[in-house]
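Appendix B. Raw example, untouched.
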Amino acid sequence: MPNRVCFASIDVEHPIDNLSQILEVFKRNNIPATLFVTGKVLEQHPGLFKNLPSNYEVACHSFTHRFWNTLDSEERKKELSDFLFLYQNIFNKKPRGFRAPSHIIDEEALELLEEKGFLYDSSIVPHYPPFKKYRGYKGKRPLLPYSPNGRKILEIPVRGQIFGVPLAGAWITKLPYLIYRILFIFYRPKFITLSIHSWDKLKNLERIIRLLKNKNYQFLNGSEIYQNYK
């Protein structure tokens, strides 16, 4: 495993207005990435995702993007079953990874993912800024990829900078780039996640990527991280 790893991911849900521009930035900087795509988007644009370069991975972001804390067990199963049926028809294989809408996941959901054959999940935010409300998995979790409660499935945490400051689209756009530069002078975590939405603005995205490269981060997609950490 490299000394420092960045997991670059795109949550692809409606609208997808800026997806092509984000992919162009990633391509220009030779960044492998995982696209967590909803079934609704995949259903409407199968060719777009089928023809992605080989260093991009298409994973599951549920089918409808309904928050999982509003769904009962049968509704969760249907979300996954509908996505798996569509995915297998398009790619002739099973998806490896999953990310819950709005990072809302629990033990029951992790067990269900394992039953459905997913190899990794990337939903849990292990440390969250204290002034922001987080609806997902409660309590502190490991900051490196790990197996939750001894499960076979690997959890790839959505990890930010010190104090939980995320490397996420809205934050990158709103926070001055200088703040990130200063943070990485004082603290360079071994593992970090760069997380973008398909509708995020591109402000500072390329500068953040170059900053991470300058700090000797190696970019890996979800499957590559799974292979390294399993």
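End of appendix B.
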